[in-house]
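cron nightly-structures :: item 1 of 1
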Amino acid sequence: MLWTILVGALIGLIAGAITKKGGSMGWIANILAGLVGSVIGQALLGSWGPSLAGMALIPSILGAVIVVLVVSYLLSRVGH
C-alpha cells in the first residue's frame, strides 16, 4: 500500500511538472492525481511499458496529465 502511494505521488509529481501546475497542488493532490491518472491512463491506453507497484508508468503519467489539466481547468472556471 505504501509503495502504491509513493508511486502515485511520483506519477502525480511528473504530471504536475509536465503541465507546469504541480507546484501549487500539494502532496495529497499529487498522490490523488497520480492514482486516478493511473486508473484512467491504463483504462484508455492499456498496460504497456515499464511498471511499478502494478501501475504501467507511461499510460499512468499520460492519464495523470489529463487529470491535472481537467482539474486545473475546472478550478479556474469556478474561480471566475
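cron nightly-structures :: done
Helices lie at 2-19, 27-45, 57-78.
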